Automatic annotation (TrEMBL), chain B:
Record-level GO cellular component terms: cytoplasm
KW Nucleotidyltransferase (keyword) present: no
Residues holding Mg(2+) 3: Q821, E833
InterPro entries, sorted: ATP-grasp, ATP_grasp_subdomain_1, CarbamoylP_synth_lsu_oligo_sf, CPAse_ATP-bd, CPSase_dom, CPSase_lsu, CPSase_lsu_oligo, CPSase_preATP-grasp
ATP-grasp domain boundaries: 133-327, 672-862
Protein name in the entry: Carbamoyl phosphate synthase large chain
Region feature (Allosteric domain): 931-1065
Gene name for this UniProt entry: carB
Organism of origin: Oliverpabstia intestinalis
Length: 358, 1065
């Protein structure tokens, strides 16, 4: 067993064993509290540019079931766990996480006190770190490198390269892939929609030219403000009067495109247990979450948009309803995978908005 | 203020006596709910027949009624107290059934009382087999093919359409009473007949057998606005086929992918929504291990044993939240008390692994079948928490206090490969030990999985533990190996034993390498938010989060571990009150315990809670961090007492009676010396080690003698011997259980058994009261009917008892509690046992005398004097009430257990009858214990020769009440000669119709069968008693109990009971 080290920009060093690729990586360290769904987390493109720590200590128990992947590959720069199961067990299990990480050249570290790491991130906020197998690491040299790291423009790394179509007999939906999880398209497709998936660089004109019944803006990685080009296109989509539903990064970009602001949270929301309240009905749903940025609602212009969902715990914005428009956007993940399916009804609401049957 | 302002006064119904399937968890839930209601300013009226509970304290509810749980009593109580609402979902099945009956009779409506929490329609939809099935079908939730039948014929016909095996589940019974799996028609008929009789409504569900599937549970909460969340899911290591209460359970599920997890979670939310439950609910699933196919097994529309486990496993207080929901609050309005930052609508996330192991009573019922089925048999359970499964399993094993410390504790090394392959089919409490041995002898994991259906993930974890055993046996103990062994929670002494070292050496090595236990917090949120409630578990390798928090004096309170026969909920009552008493005096309190069903392990009882095994090593790790100023061992039963010596070695002062004096009471020779000094007589006795010595001693003393191991509670291993053969057999049995302490042989005296609990401050004593047992000496005090105040002993004897108690307390330098048992023969008083600690009778006697014994004792321990606390030393004046404690048994749950009473304790719980007259108290006590006569006015008597004379008297009195008495030859002859019209009946081995036909004919109310003294030679009596119990017939095995029962029956003109508010005493 080869030793590995997780070095944080505040100087903390965790010693564990190396898993996956042996290469060295610098990334933003975040934690996810989901107890199941490690594969969905690994293959969620929103983790591009981050290394993710699972707070649940026993990971890999049911192995890799390829049909559960949310994209074609794992996206995190690194993977941090307490313990990987040596014998995965599930009727669908096809492989182990160990092999999966190796195959995609992703380094990781196991056997560290993930709870202690989580507590540091909770207290000091998300920070950068390095996973290395070099026992002779030099903290003085590494820390400035860690501090200098930024996630940068990651959407272009994760979006699809060309448009694809999922056939359906119902409403036509244009899905702008900013790093979309498979289950967004699947959720629409299962409801009969024909889903056309567009690369993030697609212009508004091209999307609108296809005359879709509705537009879906997906989740995705990174700081929304980095997506300057996409924001411009989304502004045009906003003005088109086509019904729009947006999730996570899509939600943030729509807010930025219509004059609102976003900011980085101390350590974000990543997990499958956050309660969100539908302000219209007062109902609370448990949601799947994965975001480090949030829309500011302090200066929200009610003539443009009003809050539709809030997080019950910290009161942060979880969704907006656009005034006078057929547009609603949410910060959480109604497509679940991993996590609770409680808010799946929002896809039905979208279909109704497009003039379809709920 | 309740959200719903119309709720001002709520009646809470508790779960009654502790029986298998309905145990301490409902005291925990009920207590938490009462506190939650009171927090909102609601007046709480509490009804529970169980005096050993914390919920029946006047601090917990405003009005407390310890009365039988019958419809008549509840109706009368509602008329008296006029509550506006009844909360039925927190008192287990007993409370729920009662509420349902009231609702069905229209009583609640008539008196404008509403059911809060969950409506009766909802309860019906969830509990009634057919309605439940229809509801599930309506929302497309799969249930196993099944049919509710009311006759055996229908059951056979239906089974023929779906094929064997089938599972049988009687409607409205507890812990699966009367249920089982039938593999053929003969089994079907047997189980079905029994189940139909046990079901309150005479219905049994016959269901396709899905044994071998994964068993998964979800704990769900829903509020009146329709918001719902899951608190926790749990996976049973034992596949479907073993009752979840008897299964090893792990939280969260380990072998489910997110797709499976969410599929079942969504299903659970759909079900709770469709049923319209407001509050907590438990949904059990069977999941096909090879597909996404699943079946809903059962829904409990109330808090349950599983919700207690889920609460402790996650830190989420289900009962508290359920009570708030009943008052109209929604989940997003109820703050999470653990974090203070989140709300009850937040789903707990675990960053650790929880393992629960049931505590099974086979050490008490040596003759019982150990097989685990859908009929629950466990009396209690232990829970452990660790950040890896191996460690959690190891910790849970050693928490059991059943002489097990690892997967090597049961020895199956005598089995060959072939024998082992056969033995792996056995489903009992030793299965994981058998699997470990199978792995050691090279049987493949796949083969084991094929036979047991236990998921390979769990089998591999067991394999990892056996690999560690092997490594420790064969490798040099270096730092890495030691670190890894400790990560898996191998105790130091087990490592030492395997590696050929001493425990001290291993401990030293750990010190050298800095391998120490660190404590992590159970915070409901996987560290996402800072938590404020210090609830800890240990891990090796990691940052320690437990900090010494204050400058206050710190006291360590040791809990009593799993509920077992002989050490029940009473000791949790004592631990909790002790904790509260110390907190009140400004101490910082720390509790260590491992029982998830108890109030003591609730998150807000002590300042700090350590959920850990109660072994010296585990306790020492906590002591090293907390450095308490002292430890209290008097209140946690034998579990805590056993830790006294270890605590002293750690340098922790024992508060109260010193360790030497504890020892003096237990050590025969020292104790004899003290008795001599005090001039107190005791039955003559000797201390021996071998069968030869025992026989010699017995012959010197003269038979009958009492043989027992020292240092036991609940009379474990204690027997009366009448000859050498008996002695030999008993010594054999005793030695089966690891025995480090000597064996005591005492002269057995026939007399009145008397019990006293007292508090001593070092100078003065307070005796709240003298209790007398109805059964004469020879029946364990825990199984005897206990009467306060003592009725049949003289004033002189009482004065002698007071005097002896005083002398003993002084001689033993007792500070705190002392419990003494006496035998009174005429005016002669003998001491038979002294326990320098709290006892089983403390909660009962506290409640009926109104003297808060535990807080008094705790204050004495802190240095206060009884006189200064307003008490006149000595025996306190008798209360104006008669209070009778009645033992309650769970015999019908344990196949093959001998139900005859003797010196070994067998009861699982107790109820109270309290009244201004003796007869009414006795009547209430029998009623509370569920002995509800007469129905058919037929009874059977078969008594041993010594009892023939008394049998005549009893027979006459029953006859006068209109009973038809059937009796076997000798008994019949005696009765007939005395003029009782007994009907002679054939014994079992004689041709039909015989006794068994009578019993199975369902026309018998009562069997009085006194087994011959000593070893059970005749299998007859055993069979009669077993069959009677299993067909729901009341059985009495002591003449004294029978006399008390007939007295109570002679006084049934008490059609109107007087209800007594205990809070006013």
């Amino acid at each position: 067993m080869m030793k590995a080290f997780l070095i944080l920009e505040d100087g903390h060093v965790f010693t564990g064993t190396s898993i996956g690729a042996k290469k060295e990586v610098i990334s933003e360290i975040v934690f996810n509290t989901s107890m199941t769904g490690y594969l969905e987390v690994l293959t969620d493109p929103s983790y591009a540019g981050q290394a993710v720590c699972m707070t649940y200590p026993l990971i890999g128990n049911y192995g890799i079931c390829y049909e559960d992947t949310e994209s074609l590959r794992p996206w995190p720069d690194g993977y941090i766990v307490r313990e990987l199961s040596r014998t995965p067990s599930n009727f669908r299990c096809e492989d182990t996480i160990q092999n999966f990480l190796k195959r995609f050249d992703i380094p990781g570290i196991a056997g560290i006190d993930t709870r202690a790491l989580t507590r540091i991130l909770r207290e000091k906020g998300t920070m950068n770190g390095m996973i290395t197998t070099d026992e002779n690491y030099d903290l003085d040299a590494i820390i400035p490198r860690l501090k200098a790291y930024t996630t940068g423009k990651v959407v272009e790394k994760v979006t699809c390269s060309e448009k694809t179509v999922l056939k359906g007999s119902g409403k036509k939906v244009a899905l702008l892939d900013l790093g979309a999880k498979n289950n967004i398209a699947k959720s629409l497709n299962q409801r009969g929609c024909e889903v056309t998936i567009y690369p993030a660089s697609t212009t508004a004109e091209e999307i609108l030219a296809a005359n879709p019944d509705g537009i879906m803006l997906s989740n995705g990685p990174g700081d929304p403000k980095e997506c300057t080009e996409v924001i411009k296109e989304i502004r045009k989509l906003y003005e088109s009067d086509t019904p729009i539903f947006a999730i996570c990064l899509g939600h943030q970009l729509m807010a930025l495109a219509t004059g609102a602001d976003t900011h980085k949270m101390k350590y974000g929301h990543r997990g499958g247990n956050h309660p969100v309240k539908d302000l219209e009905t007062g109902r609370v749903y448990i949601s799947s979450q994965n975001h480090g940025y949030v829309v500011d609602t302090d200066n929200l212009d009610p003539k443009v948009a009003v809050p539709a969902f809030i997080n019950v715990n910290d009161g942060t914005n979880e969704g907006l309803k656009y005034t006078g428009k057929n547009i609603f956007t949410v910060q959480f993940h109604p497509e679940a995978c991993p996590g609770p399916q409680d808010s799946g009804y929002l896809f039905d609401r979208f279909i109704k908005m497009m003039g379809g049957e709920e | 203020m309740p959200k719903n302002p119309e709720i001002k006064k709520v009646l809470m119904i508790g779960s009654g006596p502790i029986v298998i399937g309905q145990a301490a968890e409902f005291d925990y839930a009920g207590t938490q709910a009462c506190r939650s209601l009171k927090e909102e300013g609601v007046e709480v009226v509490l009804l529970n027949s169980n005096p050993a509970t914390i919920m029946t304290d006047k601090d917990i509810a405003d009005k407390v009624y310890i009365e039988p749980l019958t419809v008549e009593v509840v109706e009368q109580l509602i008329l008296k107290e006029k509550p506006d609402s009844v909360l039925p979902t927190l008192g287990g099945q007993a409370g729920l059934n009662l509420a349902m009956e009231l609702e069905e009779r229209g009583f609640l409506k008539e008196h404008n009382v509403r059911l809060i929490g969950t409506t009766s329609q909802t309860i019906k939809k969830a509990e009634d087999r057919q309605e439940f099935k229809d509801t599930m079908e309506k929302i497309g939730e799969p249930v196993a093919a099944s049919l509710v039948v009311t006759t055996v014929e229908d059951g056979i016909a239906f089974t023929n359409t779906i094929g064997y095996p089938v599972v049988l589940r009687p409607a409205y019974t507890l812990g699966g009473s009367g249920g089982g799996i039938a593999h053929n028609e003969a089994e079907l008929i047997e189980i079905l007949e029994n189940g139909l009789r046990l079901s309150r409504v005479g219905e049994v569900l016959v269901e396709r057998c899905i044994a071998g599937w994964k068993e998964i549970e979800y704990e769900v909460m829903r509020d009146s606005a329709g918001n719902c969340i899951t608190v926790c899911n749990m996976e049973n290591l034992d596949p479907v086929g073993v009752h979840t209460g008897d299964s090893i359970v792990v939280a969260p599920s380990q072998t489910l992918g997110d797709k499976e997890y969410q599929m079942l979670r969504t299903s659970a939310l759909n079900i709770i929504t469709e049923l319209g439950i407001t509050g907590g609910c438990n949904v059990q699933y069977a999941l096909n291990p090879d597909s996404f196919e699943y079946c809903v097994i059962e829904v409990n529309p109330r808090v349950s044993r599983s919700s207690a486990l889920a609460s402790k496993a996650t830190g989420y207080p289900i009962a508290k939240v359920a009570a708030k929901i009943a008052l109209g609050y929604t989940l997003d309005e109820i703050p999470n008390a653990i974090t203070g930052k989140t709300y009850a609508s937040f789903e707990p996330m675990l960053d650790y692994c929880v393992v629960k192991i049931p505590r099974l009573p086979f050490d008490k019922f040596i003759s019982a079948k150990r097989t685990l089925t859908t009929q629950m048999k466990a009396t209690g359970e232990v829970m452990s928490i660790c950040n890896n499964f191996e460690g959690a399993l190891m910790k849970a094993i050693r928490s059991l206090e059943q002489h097990v410390d690892s997967l090597m504790s049961y020895d199956f090394s005598n089995l060959s490969r072939e024998e082992m392959l056969e033995a792996l089919h056995i489903v009992d409490d030793m299965r994981i030990w058998r699997i470990a041995q199978a792995i050691r002898i090279g049987i493949s994991q796949e083969e084991i999985h094929e036979i047991t259906k236990i998921d390979l993930w769990f089998i591999d974890k067991i394999a990892i533990l056996t690999e560690m055993e092997y490594a420790l046996k064969t490798r040099e103990l270096d730092e890495d190996l030691l670190r890894e062994a400790k990560r898996m929670e191998f105790p130091d002494y087990v490592i030492a034993k395997l590696n050929g070292k001493t425990e001290e050496t291993v401990k030293e090595m750990r010190k050298t390498y800095g391998i120490t236990a660190a404590y992590k917090m159970v915070d409901t949120c996987a560290a996402e938010f800072a938590a404020t409630t210090p609830y800890y578990y240990s891990v090796y390798g990691g940052e320690n989060e437990a900090e010494r928090t204050s400058d206050k004096k710190k006291v360590l309170v040791l809990g009593s571990g799993p509920i077992r026969i002989g050490q029940g909920i009473e000791f949790d009552f004592c631990s909790v009150h002790c904790t509260w008493a110390f907190a009140k005096e400004g101490y910082e309190t720390i509790i260590i315990n491992n029982n998830p069903e108890t109030v003591s392990t609730d998150f807000d009882i002590a300042d700090k809670l350590y959920f850990e095994p109660l072994t010296p090593e585990d306790v020492e790790n906590i002591v090293n961090i907390e450095k308490p100023d002292g430890a209290v061992v008097q209140f946690g039963g034998q579990t805590a007492i056993k830790l006294t010596e270890a605590l002293m070695k750690m340098g922790v002062p024992i508060l109260g009676t010193s360790a030497e004096n504890v020892d003096a009471a237990e050590d025969r020779e020292l104790f004899d010396e003290i008795l001599e000094q005090c001039q107190i007589p005791r039955p003559k006795g000797q201390t021996v080690f071998t069968a030869e010595e025992a026989k010699k001693a017995a012959n010197e003393l003269g038979y009958p003698v009492l043989v027992r191991p020292s240092y036991v509670l609940g009379g474990q291993g204690m027997q009366i011997a009448i000859n050498d053969e008996d002695v030999e057999q008993y010594i054999g049995i005793i030695n089966r259980i690891a025995q480090e302490h000597p064996i005591l042989v005492d002269k057995y005296l026939v007399g009145k058994e008397i019990e006293v609990d007292a508090v001593c401050d070092g100078e003065d004593i307070v005796i709240p009261g003298i209790m007398e047992h109805i059964e004469r000496a020879g029946i364990h005090s825990g199984d005897s009917i206990s009467v306060y105040p003592a009725q049949t002993i003289s004033k002189t004897a009482k004065a002698t008892i007071e005097e002896y108690t005083k002398r003993l307390a002084k001689a033993l330098h007792v500070i705190g509690m002392i419990n003494i048992q006496f035998i009174v023969c005429g005016e002669e008083v003998y001491v038979i046992e002294v326990n320098p600690r709290s006892s089983r009778t403390v909660p009962y006697i506290s409640k009926v005398t109104g003297i808060p014994i535990v807080p008094l004792a705790a204050k004495a321990i802190m240095g206060y004097k009884l006189k200064d606390m307003g008490y006149t030393p000595g025996l306190q004046p008798e209360a104006k009430y008669f209070a009778i404690k009645m033992p309650v048994f769970s015999f019908e749950k344990i196949r093959g257990a001998d139900i005859s009473l003797g010196p070994e304790m067998k009861s699982t719980g107790e109820c109270l009858g309290i009244a201004e007259s003796f007869n009414e108290a006795l009547y209430k006590a029998f009623l509370g214990a569920g002995i509800n006569l007469p129905k058919h006015k037929n009874m059977i008597m078969t008594v041993r020769d010594e009892d023939k004379e008394e049998a005549v008297e009893i027979g006459k009195r029953f006859e006068a009440l209109g009973y038809r008495i059937y009796a076997t030859r000798n008994t019949a002859k005696t009765l007939q000669e005395a003029g009782v019209k007994a009907i002679r009946t054939n014994k079992l081995e004689q041709p039909s119709p015989n006794l068994m036909d009578l019993i199975l004919g369902h026309k018998i109310d009562l069997v009085i069968d006194t087994p011959s003294q000593g070893v059970e030679h005749a299998k007859d009596g055993f069979l009669i008693r077993r069959n009677a119990i299993e067909t729901g017939v009341n059985v009495l095995t002591a003449m004294d109990t029978a006399k008390a029962l007939v007295t109570s029956l002679e006084n049934t003109d008490l059609n109107r009971l007087t209800l007594i508010d205990i809070a006013q005493i």
